[in-house]
């Protein structure tokens, strides 16, 4: 498998030596407009489709809550529990459909590290440390609240940020938020997704079948061979990807990780300083599946997993250890971890403050990082088999995400655009 997190010199499909690094540009440089006949920049497309998809996700989640607490509740839960072959509909959604989501996540991670906003070490520092801080603080809060509850397995539930939901909220706020902060949030969420994938692989894999795991490894070897032979057609990769999903599912490793593994073997043709290469297999596949993920996969997942019956539940339901740990981790942990670590990194000179962004706006975006809907629900399903604990996870995720969205929106909507802040020895920033 390609090593994207370490050196990442290029791609297996190229025999060219590593390119000489370009002069360092600030993280906030936006890609130039795409010339006629070429697809728009993947980053711009991501910001558009995921922001709009986030709005669709909000509607899907709200609809799930309404249906789950209406006369149609039995139909809703019964249909999700209906078996189609070896798995229930809910499991098909969470295991197969979400593999497509993780495929897109893997493509985005590889593209950004090789040919995007995270292509240089300096550009990775600020969103990287922010993502790390935004994962550690929520986990500590969850563990502290659940130390004696017997539910420590759910420590990772509040550590992830839902980029689609967060960008959807930013889309509602409009131009009050600088583009640089949107890019910062996107880069942070991409690294956040990478860390979440690692957590799932390391901590939420139970019994392993070495036979099927070996078959999965052999399939990845075939995918790497296609890459080395510079096969540009996407079709053989997708065929082997389906085989890889099957072997991964049978091995005991969560099958969605097959999507990430497949993504890392798709060839990419770097096009530094210009819009995406229209002939690059990775760019073509990413552009092809992005709308499907944004407008179908994620909303279906949200509708299938956000539904929780509130019948008989009072305010005390939110103060159950798991629900409280998740909600507090998302709302308090995320804003503390992301904002303070980013503050410290800029103060120490490890990274540059996003252009045209004020400290208040940075804090508002840190609040939005507490929207952990999709990945948090997903990890919660992996962490707990008990329906009662799964219900607590859903309540905590909904509460923490809604609070984060409302608070972040309020802070950003009341912020004003200012000139670029510059470091001050007496404070973090001053406006000249």
How does the overall form come out from the CA principal axes?
globular
Category by helix and strand content: mainly alpha
Number of E-type strands: 4
Secondary structure tally, helices:
14
Major sheet: order of its strands?
A: 1-2
Q: Tell me the major beta sheet.
A: 2 strands, antiparallel
Short note summarizing the structure:
The chain contains 14 helices and 4 strands. With 432 residues, it is mostly helical.
Describe this structure in words.
- The protein is mainly alpha-helical and 432 residues long.
- It has 14 helices and four strands.
- Helix 3 (89-115) runs antiparallel to helix 10 (281-305), helix 5 (163-173) packs antiparallel against helix 6 (179-203) and helix 10 crosses helix 13.
- The protein is globular.
- The N and C termini lie far apart (49 Å).
- Residues 1-10, 12-40 and 418-432 have low confidence and may be disordered.
Q: Can you tag this structure with a few keywords?
A:
globular; 432 residues; 62% helix; mainly alpha
Itemize the secondary structure elements and their pairings.
Blueprint: H1 42-68, H2 73-80, E1 83-84, E2 87-88, H3 89-115, H4 121-145, H5 163-173, H6 179-203, H7 210-228, H8 235-251, H9 257-263, H10 281-305, H11 321-347, H12 359-368, H13 373-383, H14 387-413, E3 421-424, E4 427-431
Antiparallel strand pairs: 1-2, 3-4
Helix pairs in contact: 1-5, 1-10, 3-6, 3-9, 3-10, 4-6, 4-11, 5-6, 5-14, 7-8, 8-9, 10-13, 11-12, 11-14, 12-14, 13-14
